[in-house]
Amino acid sequence: MSDFCDLYPGVSKNCQADQVNLFFEPLAASERSENILYASNSLDLRKSSDRGRKLVAKKTIGKGRILINEIPTVLQVTPLCKCVGERYSLYRCHNCGAAIKLFYVCDGCNICIFCTRSCLFQAYKNYHRYECYGLQRHFWSMDDIDYSYVALRMMLYGASKKFDTQPEEGGMYGNFENNYPFIYALETNFKQLLLPTVNKILYSTARNLVYLIRKTNFFHHLNEDKSCNVKDLHLYVGGLMVKHYCQAQNNNVLLKYPNLTLDFALNVAGGTGKAICPTIALLNHSCSPNAAIIIYSDFVVVKSIRVIRKGEEITICYREVDALLGVDERHIITEEIFHFTCSCSFCMYEKHLAIAPYKCPQCAVGNAQQVESKEGKTVGYCFKCLRSFPLDDIAETFKIATICRNVYNVTYSIEHLARIAECYKVIFHENSLPLLDVYRLLYEKHYHWGEKPVEVVKYGLLLFRILEYNISRLYLPILMAKVKFFSHVIGMKKFTEIKDLNDEEIDIIKTFVGEVVNVKRDLRFYLPADKCHFYPPIQLKVHTMFQRVMFKENDYQAQA
Fold first, then answer.
1. How would you list the strands of the sheet with 74-78, edge to edge?
2. Which SUPFAM superfamilies match (predicted)?
3. 559 in helix, strand or coil?
4. Which of 51, 146, 275, 399 could potentially form a cystine with 253 if both were Cys, beta carbons 3.0 to 4.6 Å apart?
């Protein structure tokens, strides 16, 4: 293995093997599907008129089960050069994406690195000999802002397979030797694109095409037998790259490799990139998903984040979409980037909540709509228990909440904000989104005030309860926010001075301690146990505080 080149002087020669991201959970051979490459045998491929191709559960699937364990067919690892790199990046193989400390460097471009000599030879044979000259001159954007390079790689992969687009009859979905038919069949959004976007794609494709014609011998090798007109080949390859550009927009997997050598590994990227994974491309989007994508060293893994019922579609939340945004903001993202309007259960719930926001006093779980009865009275109608009920109490409570909000807008008083929360608990059910906004304000007020850490804990836990009810506690942004929440709480000056708690406050602290323990288990969904070294100090501080509080409580009870 070669020595370190001048481009990578920050790499330590005295590195330890366990510093590299090698954590990986394999899919057992007995659990692999016979019909879908890289997938579990608990999944089935189906088609529908509204959702297209999709994967559904053939049986009930438990939480934390591996559903797909796929090697990317086409991979773009960025940055390709340290001049746009991150200071603490783990360097990754240009061919397979594996995290490496010792590597081979391409002698031509002196930019791309490879984990083994065989990886270098494979890359050079299939595609790197055609891109090497362009990479020397930063011909493609290495800050990863478009899909022109991915489209080129997809086309070069197809050329290495002689553009064979016919899958084996009666075979499985996907092929180890030639996955190009399944890349070729991926959906595009070309018909939905506006003219400026189409012009951008055509310009990027034209640049790639001119580069291949003038700076490489690609078309000479492609037409060695002189069986085709060269101009026809130019048009065919150009059309393929336009198709692949649109496919990459719709079906790429955004890679954010966790850097396990640093503290909160999930929050630190040890390299980024894009991957084309035909099996994972079968998964549709949902703002309340039942599965999540996890990036390992050279695999892309999909795991269930909650129990999935038999017949339920497997869904993920696309990386570009933040499920914690409001429904209107999420729809702007899906419409602008992916050209569809999300109609998942969470989006439908938010829209339904705007029409029927009230809590039914009879069933306490249904959402009720305000309607006018024949007698002229205002009543509510519950869509859960299908019954009407008087709306007088809710109307009066809503008036009080409106008055308190008007006063709060002038005084910004915590007391009035707490009163609004009490009113909203009567008007809306406990996991309703309107309560989320009030709890967030109360949390921020108490945290910045800093005098009542138990109140900070109380409203923080209420926030996460609502989010987890509507999405999932294993949704990565929620998990990361919860770890930050714990860090903020134990960092409060008054936290270590908690004393003289009443029964309600002791219950809040007990719930808080339980959550701290549970989050350690949740982190192991994404990280190996030995990489959660940043978490024990949080547990220790919380445990010490809890022991002190309980000792004082037991001492008080003994004196009484």
1. 74-78, 269-276, 252-258
2. SET domain
3. helix
4. 275
User: Comparing C-alpha atoms, which of 328, 393, 331, 321 is closest to residue 361?
Assistant: 393
Q: Which two tokens stand for residue 547?
A: 């022991």
DSSP class per residue in 213-257 = HHH--HHHHHTTT--S-HHHHHHHHHHHHHHHHHHHHHHEEEEEE
Task: Give the torsion through C-alpha atoms of 504, 509, 513, 516, to 10 deg.
Answer: 110
Of 116 and 311, which is predicted with more confidence?
A: 311
Q: Where exactly are the structural domains of the chain? A: 17-197+243-316, 449-560
* Half-sphere exposure in the Cβ direction for 235 (13 Å, CA): 5
Say if residues 20 and 90 touch (Cβ distance below 8 Å): yes
**Mean pLDDT value across the chain:** 83
Query: In angstroms, what CA-CA distances link 453 with 151, 245, 334, 509?
Result: 53, 52, 39, 10
Digit-coded pLDDT (tens) for 170-193? 788 999 899 999 999 999 988 888
Q: Are the CB atoms for 72 and 275 separated by under 8 Å?
A: yes
What does the DSSP 8-state code read for residue 270?
E
Q: What whole-number distance in Å separates Cα of residue 541 and Cα of residue 233?
A: 67
Q: What is the pLDDT of residue 117?
A: 87
Q: Which residue has the higher pLDDT, 254 or 551?
A: 254
70's tokens: 């796929």
Question: Which of 116-120, 156-160, 529-533 shows the lowest per-residue confidence on average (mean pLDDT)?
Answer: 529-533
Question: Which DSSP string corresponds to 49-77?
Answer: TTTEEEEEESS-B-TT-EEEEE--SEEEE
**Is residue 554 very low, low, confident or very high in pLDDT (cuts 50, 70, 90)?**
low
Query: Smallest Cα–Cα separation from 283: which of 46, 471, 41?
Result: 46
The average pLDDT across 435-453 equals 88
Q: Which two tokens stand for residue 123?
A: 């890359």
Here the tokens at position 104 are 């081979």
- Dihedral sign, Cα of residue 408, residue 410, residue 412, residue 413: negative
Please tell me which residue, 19 or 158, carries the higher pLDDT value. 158
Calpha distance 374→405 (Å, rounded): 32
- Paired with 273 in beta bridges are 77, 255
Cis bond upstream, residue 79 (ω within 30): yes
- Is CATH 2.170.270.10 the right assignment for the domain spanning 17-197+243-316? yes
